[in-house]
Amino acid sequence: MSSAELNVEVNPLGAQLSVLRDAGGRELLWDGDPAVWAGRAPLLFPIVGTLAGGSYRLGSQAYSLPRHGFARVRQFDVVAATSSRATFRLSADEATAKVYPFRFQLDVDFALNGGTLSVTSSVRNMGQEQMPASIGYHPGFRWPLPYGEPRAAHFIEFADDEGPAIRRLDANGLLSPERHPTPVSQRRLALDDALFRDDVVIFDEIRSRSVTYGTDTGPRIRVSYPDARYLGVWTKPGAPFICIEPWQGIADEAGFSGDFRTKLGVFTLAPGAAQSLTMQISLLR
Known about the structure:
By secondary structure, the protein is mostly beta strands. 2% of the residues lie in helices and 40% in strands.
């Protein structure tokens, strides 16, 4: 897909955004170097984050899922594709039923309009019973952006004032009960590797419906998320990318052993019902 301002490519494996370039051919998205982090912008479904013990319970049955679920490693069908729009679909099959025993349909729609890429993921319950699920986005942007400014000059600016606390993960990747003082000052999160020595920074009471990423002088990227419940910000310390992650779901709380349907961040769909999560990525000149 291409416009006068952006060039976009999506890989049907995981329906993953794999290329995001500006009009000058400059790469805005991380390249997925497997020696550092193989992801580029993986789609998270049917869970976000890590399960306690690597498994979840539905009644008396236990099922195992890796961190962030299975959608990111599944081949999606291409439903439609034009120069400005493409839709991808993943449907339940025998393999998914072994780890997630629900009949679902997951559609991911990419629409490019000028300098804005809109991504809408819609999960529908195709079965006859209540279906619990989570979904999330995980795009990794170049840090630094390719506009000549040093890595240390980059920040994330929130659209609104945020609360005084953030959440972190423990050594097992589970949500710690403690709240930590926010690193955001005057609506800005100054990006520094030290922030991510304890993994992702989690805003579990996010107020802003968008953030901008970049520097004071160069072009910035705006990430909007009108219906996300949580926002994560993550990198591997020293790596040349920063992930801005709108989520409708979150890792298990440390010590959680309840039914999946009571898991924090899970939404439940009635038979035939659907729920969507939208993210917009805009290049601001």
